[in-house]
């Protein structure tokens, strides 16, 4: 199975967790949609890092260096996600929160894969 397929599978599970948390925080806890999106993303990102390190990219044991790089990538990805959500929330009716969250997740997936593959889990980088 290729890295992209493994990354996609982990990310899909992460997005499901992410969106479920975000939607619940918005619908049931009354958090603003942008804050709910950021919260769901942060929780899922932590789980995704561990699985990407050990399975998606098979980069050996967990690494503090890679964890720090992944945190940086997560911040960039989060900025993309929240930006998309904020823009679409202004442009679309309030009846579309799940569609807005999904669009934000799609845009951030692309950024996350490219940065994860070529920055965090780059071939030939140290494994510790």
Beta-strand content estimate:
under 5%
How many domains make up the 3D coordinates?
1
Radius of gyration from the CA trace?
A: 15 Å
Number of strands: 0
The average pLDDT is 88
3D structure, described in words:
The chain is mainly α and 128 residues long. It has one domain (3-120). It contains 4 helices and no strands. Helix 3 (64-91) packs antiparallel against helix 4. The longest helix is centred in the middle third of the chain and has 28 residues, at 64-91. The radius of gyration is 15 Å and the shape is elongated.
Task: Label this structure with key terms.
GtrA_CellWall_Glycosyl, elongated, mainly alpha, 4 helices, transmembrane helix, GtrA_DPMS_TM, 128 residues, GtrA/DPMS transmembrane domain-containing protein
List the SSEs and their pairings:
Blueprint: H1 3-29, H2 33-56, H3 64-91, H4 97-120
Subcellular location: Membrane
Membrane topology: Multi-pass membrane protein
Domain GtrA/DPMS transmembrane: 6-121
Question: How would you sum up this structure in a few lines?
Answer:
With 128 residues, this protein is an all-alpha fold.
């Amino acid at each position: 199975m290729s890295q992209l397929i493994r990354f996609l599978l982990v990310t899909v599970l992460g997005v499901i967790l992410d969106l479920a948390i975000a939607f619940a925080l918005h619908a049931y806890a009354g958090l603003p949609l942008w804050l709910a999106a950021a919260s769901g993303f942060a929780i899922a990102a932590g789980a995704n890092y561990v699985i990407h390190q050990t399975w998606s990219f098979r980069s050996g044991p967990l690494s503090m260096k890679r964890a720090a790089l992944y945190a940086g990538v997560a911040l960039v990805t989060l900025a993309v996600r929240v930006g998309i959500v904020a823009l679409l929330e202004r442009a679309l009716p309030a009846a579309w929160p799940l569609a807005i969250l999904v669009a934000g997740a799609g845009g951030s997936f692309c950024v996350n894969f490219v940065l994860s593959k070529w920055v965090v889990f780059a071939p030939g980088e140290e494994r510790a």
